[in-house]
Amino acid sequence: MGKKKNMVKNMLNLYSLGMEKGLLYETIVTTRNLDGTPNAAPIGVVCKKEDEVVLYLFEGSKTFDNVKREKSFYVNILKDPLIFVQSTIGNLDSTEFKSHENGFSINRAEAFFKAEVTTEKVVKRKDHMGTSTQMVIRAKAQETVKIREQVEPLNRAIYGIIGALIYLSRIDMVSEDKRKTNLDRINEISRVVNKVGGEDDKKAMKMILDKLKE
Ligand SMILES: Cc1cc2nc3c(=O)[nH]c(=O)nc-3n(C[C@H](O)[C@H](O)[C@H](O)COP(=O)(O)O)c2cc1C
Q1: Cα(25) to centroid(ligand 1), Å
Q2: Residue located nearest, by CA, to atom 6 of ligand 1
Q3: Residue to substitute in 37, 88, 93, 134 for testing ligand 1 pocket (most ligand atoms within 8 angstroms of CB)
Q4: 16, 25, 109, 151: least CB-packed within 10 angstroms?
């Protein structure tokens, strides 16, 4: 592990950063504000192919406004819990950012890449949280930079599956009320796994649901 002396920056694509086609990763997207300062926010990024991503941006965030205006952003791959929390409830300290010609990355990232918007579409979406206006962004990944040798993009499916397995393994030990609550939780986990996960994740989740039906 550890930092490499020189950052690897040649001919890398999203697959060489550990991303897989069709999976959704929790990343930190960095953008440039109107006044030139950096902004960071956790954003889900779907890997569409080796050099293409799709983002769903909710109207009302700085990231939404900045991406709409600048037509480019940086995607940072990292698993630092403090960076996720700080960038959700406020913004990161300016010392956390590294400045580039036309944007910013995060110093503590395992890897990052710049993305240029190719298409954008504003849509009204209705989901389990209610109705919202979202911008669907398709972007081309460029200038992929690996800072650490080991890069592991954050995908939530495995955490969900482990959580669901814990509920499953205790299902006969709990009261009827608790059983109902845990079944609701497992169904919610299943929704997330099917949204963000790959084939094996979905298969694993189905096995859990099938076992519950026995
Ligand atoms: C793990 C995680 C993933 C998120 N994914 C998205 C997303 O895909 N799209 C989005 O618009 N907001 C997403 N959010 C919410 C934004 O990060 C949040 O609204 C943030 O405060 C926006 O910050 P900004 O105003 O600096 O852009 C996510 C939040 C978390 C914690």
Answers
A1: 12
A2: 43
A3: 88
A4: 16
Ligand 1 atom with least separation from CA of 42:
17
Going residue by residue through the chain (214 aa), what tens digit of pLDDT does each one get? Answer: 444 445 555 568 999 999 999 999 999 999 999 999 999 999 999 999 999 999 999 999 999 999 999 999 999 999 999 999 999 999 999 999 999 988 999 999 999 999 999 999 999 988 878 899 999 999 999 988 999 999 999 999 999 999 999 999 999 899 999 999 999 999 999 999 999 999 999 999 999 999 999 8
Query: Do 143 and 165 fall within a single domain?
Result: no
Could you say which DSSP state residue 154 is in? B
Query: Where are the strands (E) in 60-207, listed by range?
Result: 72-77, 97-100, 103-106, 111-127, 130-148
Range of the domain at 57: 3-148
Q: How far does residue 43's CA lie from ligand 1's centre (Å)? A: 5
Write out residues with Cβ below 6 Å of ligand 1: 26, 39, 41-44, 56-58, 61-63, 88
171, 207: one domain: yes
Cβ(25)–Cβ(155) under 8 Å?
yes
Closest CA to 106 of 68, 76, 139, 80: 76
